[in-house]
Design goal:
The protein is an alpha+beta fold and 171 residues long. It has one domain (28-165). It has five helices and four strands. It has helices at 9-23, 26-46, 60-69, 107-112, 151-170; strands spanning 90-93, 98-101, 121-125, 131-135. The protein has a two-stranded antiparallel sheet with strand order 1-2. The protein has a two-stranded antiparallel ribbon with strand order 3-4. A hairpin with a 4-residue loop joins strand 1 and strand 2 (98-101). Helix 1 (9-23) crosses helix 5 (151-170) and helix 2 (26-46) packs antiparallel against helix 5 (151-170). The longest helix has 21 residues, at 26-46. The radius of gyration is 24 Å and the shape is elongated. InterPro entries: Phage_virion_morphogenesis. Pfam families: Phage_tail_S. This is Phage virion morphogenesis protein, putative tail completion.
Length: 171
């Protein structure tokens, strides 16, 4: 196979910068993390999954539970009185990965859904001495995906990656 040696200082420097940028992509992962947190927050604002499909509405049982607690539900599903889930979206990065989501214990159930009793039950005696048995969750919860990469996100992420690579070679 023929071999060609390139002795261009400009090209060598650009390839060196590109190599360095691809060795540790932490800055790129940070940009992607920021983008995906904003995208996820936009999902909460619109009440839709990453592809723009509306989340399943709250059930009457859930609305009744809010009323019994004298809580006011938020304007959309997944936004409760405390807004805890929607306010805990964050990201972590490594050299070649980004993770984003929520640390709320119920986040996965909201993302993927769950059947009544899927996680067992609570049993005991209340303050009035009555025994109780409460399945966990107490009702069926439909999936309401708030995390994910939708079509618009794919376009945005490609733009972020392209800009990162252009900046790496431009120096």
């Amino acid at each position: 196979m023929p071999r060609i040696d390139i002795t261009s200082d400009t090209l060598t420097a650009a390839l060196s910068r590109l190599s360095g940028a691809l060795t540790d992509t932490t800055p790129l992962m940070q940009d992607i993390g920021e983008y995906m947190v904003k995208s996820t927050n936009d999902n909460f604002a619109s009440g839709t999954d990453p592809d723009g499909r509306p989340w399943a509405p709250r059930s009457q049982a859930t609305l009744d539970a809010y009323a019994a607690r004298k809580d006011k539900p938020g304007p959309r599903p997944l936004i409760g009185a405390t807004k805890s889930l929607s306010s805990t979206i964050s990201y972590e990065v490594g050299e070649d990965e980004v993770l984003w989501g929520s640390n709320m214990i119920y986040a996965a159930v909201q993302q993927f859904g769950a059947e009544a009793g899927e996680f067992g039950a609570r049993m005991g005696t209340n303050k009035k001495g009555r025994s109780f048995f409460m399945p966990i969750p107490w009702g069926n919860i439909p999936p309401r995906p708030f995390l994910g990469v939708g079509k618009d996100d794919e376009t945005g992420l490609i733009e972020i990656i392209t800009e990162y690579l252009e900046d790496a070679t431009d120096g």
